[in-house]
Design a protein that fits this description.
The chain contains 26 helices and 31 strands. The protein is α+β, with helices and mostly antiparallel strands and 873 residues long.
């Protein structure tokens, strides 16, 4: 900051400070015990008055310290997954710093530290005189004063937050530099006043803290160049060691760096500063000459004060500066295989009001970023390596990064139904913040949505059928209600928008080209029959189906509601949704209809060791227990012989689940016990396949990969391995509740009689009643040829949608008329009239007036007209 113009008052104040300082000098030493200072002389009194009116109390805030994300390791103990910081600092205790470091810093900066009261009067007076004369701008500060200065710098920096973009970053850097300049400026009247304030604070600090606390605080807070703050981070950055293990030469180097951090830093081989001619200095080429000179000065001071021997000095002085830099990796890149969970957890911190809130969203975001990057929070997440590591291993086995250079992606996530805790989140790609075109790398979190990792989501296919099943049950329908699940034209309803045109399910079809069949929601779910679910949806409302998904925490990955658009295709999962949202929905079914919002944060410990109050899991009943239990009853069949059987780990844990495939480029497997829910997606993460050429470019389909031996079944195996690990960790799962009796009842409906109708009219009548029609072979009947002569089952009660066989008459049947009591001639005429041309009188009818007693076939019997009827008299 440029020096202000010095006014007469300012110069006078400076002079009074100097004159008064001579009088003050003798009493400042006693200021730590005697608050009242008395000196003679007007100038001295004015100076002391100025000194006395300066603020005396400075409470050092906790320094900026990295935030840490923890997970649970394979041994069940916490481990650091990633750190986030604006200043790379790890605070240490007094005995965690090598004694030689204390000797080095005190020898070069404040040899009388343990004997003065916070201020070195003689050195300060000389510095002020030199300052006023313009012969020097040195500060002559004690360690206590330097600690005060660093505290003031830190307090200033705490109020400066970085923004996004190059311009914002430049402004941030300038503001940080200004904080240092304002606190370190020792020039002119402002410098004199700053020095007096620094002295006043230092005296107070000495009253409140022990010498060791002040010395340690100074080493923990000081800058060592760039983003390196504190002695532990400096030892690690420059020498890949700890503060406790520093050698003499290393300690002297760091003690030198702290005097002018960005000039003396030794992690820039190209040089840390340039002269007016643009020549770089303090580089690897010149042996870090600037830092070397300063280090050797420190060593000389240590020798002079008897802190080291001549032999120690000679050895260290002769050694070159040899940096062994350790590049600290902050952020989620350091989490490696856990990076995608880390990204997800990071967003959960940055959106959570517990870490900072304000009516202004921008200020709230700044507060939360500060909490993560500066407040030294220890954030314990829900990630558990006992599930995560098997997930990582399985993912590597079945879907490698950039498997075919055609954007083949995969993601798996496991959550706890009763809490929403995310136990595992894995992905086949490798984490990198920047996109360089290598498909093996991305920062997108496939398992989550745009707000929690940037993914646009994926079509979830038939796993979305869950919401049709639930709406079906909520409307009072039974899973054992028969429906015509054949491919046909159906009328869908979407009451919340424009009407839907009749929909021909043949346009989508079923797996392996099936025509469909009459069945129940139980069989449709087990076999994932598309036309069967369309038959269910035709009796419901698409808007209501999507509303069920919305109620269960499912939204589009871009943040829109599932109810924003309502189409017939929604039944089959064409909407772009995150795997995590779908896992949450199935977890709701497993949790007796209680939805728990996904969460990643279990505990938060502040820098001072106290715990923040973490809100309890946000859970609410969104479907009734009866509906949940009956849905689980149907979904269990998927894992036991149904389409999801290959994903069953076979460990005896009761499971529910559902498979999903969307147009050969997006596949899913979701399975759940009562204690853990796993969702796995495998598919194309960039775009959709080109039906004209499924073998080229980024449009290559999953089915084509299957034909080439790639992993179209990977979803089963990854989900199986993840679920098995979760079952082992959580002790399997409980039995699911029995289905509701009413919602699982066998539903009968009225079956009309169609005998005597034309075959066409009979089909129409039965289909309108909800039955499936099957043609039988023509049968003998006295009904006119072509009309329905028989139906099976007959009229009455039958399961809705059952198959009814209708058989037409061939016109060759007739009923034997009753001719008992008629004379033989009349009986023959009657039989002939009924179509029986072959009549054979028995010998008993030889008498002229004989009356007929019986016929064979008997009267009333059905027989073909070619049958011979024997008459007895």
């Amino acid at each position: 900051m440029p020096q202000k113009n010095r006014t007469a008052k300012g110069v006078l104040g400076g002079l009074l400070g100097l004159v008064g300082l001579a009088a003050v000098a003798g009493v400042l030493v006693t200021a730590t015990v005697t608050p009242a200072l008395a000196v003679a002389g007007a100038a001295g009194s004015q100076a002391l008055d100025l000194f006395d009116k300066l603020p005396s109390y400075l409470k050092p805030d906790a320094p900026m310290e990295p935030g840490k994300l923890y997970g649970t390791g394979l041994d069940g103990q916490p481990f650091v997954m990633a750190t986030f910081y604006d200043q790379n600092r790890t605070q240490v205790e007094f005995d965690q710093v090598a004694p030689v470091m204390y000797d080095a810093i005190l020898s070069s900066e404040d040899k009388d530290f343990y004997t003065h009261g916070g201020v070195n009067i003689g050195a300060t007076a000389k510095a002020l005189i030199d300052n006023l004369n313009g012969t020097s701008s040195r500060g002559a500060s004690t360690i206590s004063q330097q600690y005060v200065k660093n505290v003031l710098i830190q307090q200033c920096e705490q109020g400066v937050l970085p923004g996004d973009g190059e311009e914002a970053q430049q402004k941030y850097a300038e503001a940080i530099e200004q904080c240092w300049w304002d606190a370190a400026n020792a020039v002119g009247s402002d410098g004199i006043e700053r020095k007096l304030q620094e002295m006043r604070y230092a005296i107070q600090i000495e009253k409140d803290y022990s010498k060791n606390d002040i010395l340690l605080g100074y080493l923990n807070i000081s800058s060592f160049g760039g983003t390196v703050y504190g002695i532990e981070a400096a030892a690690n950055r420059y020498f890949s060691t700890t503060a406790a293990n520093l050698t003499l030469a290393q300690a002297a180097t760091l003690a030198g760096i702290v005097q002018n951090p960005n000039t003396y830093r030794i992690d820039k081989p190209e040089g840390s500063w340039t002269d007016n001619d643009g020549v770089a200095h303090n580089s690897a080429a010149d042996g870090y000459a600037t830092a070397l000179d300063r280090r050797n000065y420190v060593l000389g001071r240590m020798l002079e004060l008897g802190k080291i021997t001549q032999a120690q000095f000679d050895e260290a002085d002769a050694s070159p500066i040899t940096p062994v830099p350790s590049d600290p990796i902050q952020g989620c890149a350091a989490a490696q295989d856990n990076a995608y969970f880390c990204q997800y957890a990071k967003t959960m911190v940055l959106e959570n009001p517990m870490f900072g809130d304000d009516e202004d969203p921008a200020k709230a975001q700044q507060a939360r970023r500060k909490a993560l990057f500066r407040d030294g929070l220890e954030i314990y997440t829900s990630l558990d390596m006992r599930v995560q590591q098997p997930a990582i291993d399985s993912m590597r086995t079945y879907v490698g990064a950039n498997l075919d250079n055609q954007y083949l992606g995969a993601a798996g996530v496991t959550v706890e139904p009763g809490t929403g805790r995310v136990l595992a989140m894995t992905q086949n790609t490798l984490f990198r913040e920047t996109d360089d075109g290598d498909q093996a790398y991305t920062s997108l979190v496939f398992a989550s949505d745009e707000d929690h990792g940037g993914s646009r989501g994926f079509p979830v296919g038939s796993t979305y059928k869950l919401f049709t099943l639930l709406d079906w049950l909520e409307k009072g329908h039974s899973v054992n209600e028969s429906l015509n699940g054949n491919n046909r034209v159906m009328q869908m309803t979407a009451s919340c928008g424009p009407g839907l045109a009749p929909f021909n399910t043949k346009e989508i079809g079923n797996f392996n080209g099936q025509a469909g069949y009459t069945g129940t929601p139980m069989t449709f779910t087990r076999n994932s029959l598309n036309s069967g679910f369309f038959a269910m949806a035709s009796k419901l409302d698409i808007c209501d189906i999507n509303a069920v998904a919305d109620r269960m925490g499912v939204q589009l990955a871009n943040g829109d509601k599932t109810t924003k658009e309502n189409l017939a295709y929604d039944v089959l999962g064409s909407k772009f949704i995150s795997p995590l949202d779908m896992a949450g929905a199935y977890a709701t079914v497993a949790n007796k209809g209680v939805y728990c919002e996904p969460r990643a944060i279990d505990r938060v410990v502040r820098q001072d060791g106290t715990e923040m109050e973490v809100p309890a899991s946000s859970c609410k009943q969104v479907i009734t227990p009866e509906v949940a239990a009956t849905a689980a009853y149907a979904l269990a069949s998927v894992m036991n012989g149904g389409t999801g059987a290959r994903g069953n780990p076979g460990d005896g844990t009761p499971l529910i689940g559902k498979t999903g495939t969307h147009q050969d480029y997006s596949t899913m497997m979701i399975e759940s016990s009562t204690k853990a829910t796993t969702a796995v997606w495998v598919g194309r993460w960039n775009t959709v396949p080109d039906p004209d050429d499924p073998t080229k470019g980024i449009f290559a389909s999953i089915r084509w990969l299957s034909q080439k031996g790639a992993m179209t079944d990977a979803r089963y195996y990854i989900a199986r391995d993840m679920q098995y690990a979760a079952n082992q960790l959580l002790g399997g799962g409980d039995r699911f509740p029995a289905p509701d009796r009413n919602l699982s009842r066998v539903v009968l409906t009225d079956l009309p009689s169609v005998v005597g109708l034309t075959m066409e009219d009979a089909r129409r009548t039965l289909q309108q009643a909800g039955f499936t029609v099957q043609d039988g072979a023509p049968i003998d009947s006295d009904i006119a040829e072509g009309l329905v002569a028989a139906q099976d089952p007959g009229a009455g009660k039958a399961p809705g949608g059952a198959t009814v066989t209708i058989s037409p008459s061939n016109g060759q049947g007739s009923t034997v008329p009753d001719v008992t009591g008629q004379e033989l001639g009349d009986a023959i005429n009657t039989l002939n009239a009924a179509g029986f041309g072959n009549v054979a009188p028995h010998g008993s009818c030889s008498k002229e007036d004989a009356e007929v007693q019986s016929t064979n076939p008997a009267a009333g019997s059905a027989a073909t007209k070619s049958t011979t009827v024997t008459v007895r008299c």
